[in-house]
């Protein structure tokens, strides 16, 4: 009798597993069944917004459904990520970045979502360094001159960031610590207002991706002096890295990627991943991203998860060492 029950139970479990796989496969085949929403936790015109709209324009044809890009800046990106984390319609996603996903758990005592349990990484869309930029009237042209100026003029420098807890914020805190100078932090909701403040001279320094400051560099109001990649970046060859500028081993890479609610079926994750990879392989899309100072991403979801885990480990320790805490 025991053998029969065990065999029967095994058959039931096997049947259930097959049914589950069949159902998941069917879901992926018919998905999406309505418009797809990509939340952008940054303002319109930001690098995240650019990436989301480039992808959405191509994905709508693959999915035969509209792709709605919805900017929702605020709280260092957490407002936008929270929308996707709590979504139950199966068609809402977010283009995330390190701040609200890899850094926030170590910066905030309370968050509206669990960055590990409530969202699932789907695909990396771009990677890029931040650019260290200064107001053109600041008498510095390289990293060492900036450090020397900061030391010689205590209390006179302020820096903009694209938001509390962003790589823009933490990269500057790390540079201040390594360089031994001070500057007051002025956070903004995204690159456009942060870059404008530095261009206007309301702040003097900014870390942001190249596309976020490009108009002000072209107008001559902002000067780029270095990048946060360990070595020079392909599309910004004229800029030295902070590492080669004398702050050894300095590296702070920014990335963007699609996340969904943790309940997103694995087959849907795989479908979105494959479709985004196909779009990122398009030469025209790659050219547009590279021109904006970004390296096209791609790869599978597990590789994205590995990168996210590595960033959490690295920056969690850095945040603790620097003593950065946010309300």
Give descriptors for this structure.
alpha/beta, 47% helix, D-Maltodextrin-Binding Protein, domain 2, 11 helices, six-stranded mixed beta sheet, globular, 327 residues, five-stranded mixed beta sheet
The tally of strands reads: 11
The helix/strand class is alpha/beta
The low-confidence runs, each spanning 5 or more residues with pLDDT under 50, are 1-6, 20-24
Q: What is the domain tally?
A: 2
CATH superfamily of the largest domain: Bordetella uptake gene, domain 1
The portion of residues assigned to helices is 40-55%
Description:
The protein is of the alpha/beta class. The chain folds into two domains: 38-125 and 265-322, D-Maltodextrin-Binding Protein, domain 2 (3-Layer(aba) Sandwich), CATH 3.40.190.150; 129-236, D-Maltodextrin-Binding Protein, domain 2. The protein is built from eleven helices and eleven strands. It has helices at residues 2-30, 47-63, 78-86, 98-107, 143-152, 167-179, 191-200, 210-218, 266-280, 283-291, 301-322; strands at residues 36-40, 67-71, 92-96, 119-129, 131-135, 158-161, 184-187, 205-208, 222-227, 253-261, 295-296. A six-stranded mixed β-sheet has the order 2-1-3-10-4-11, with helices on both faces. The protein has a five-stranded mixed β-sheet with strand order 7-6-8-5-9. Helix 1 (2-30) runs parallel beside helix 9, helix 2 crosses helix 9 and helix 4 (98-107) crosses helix 11.
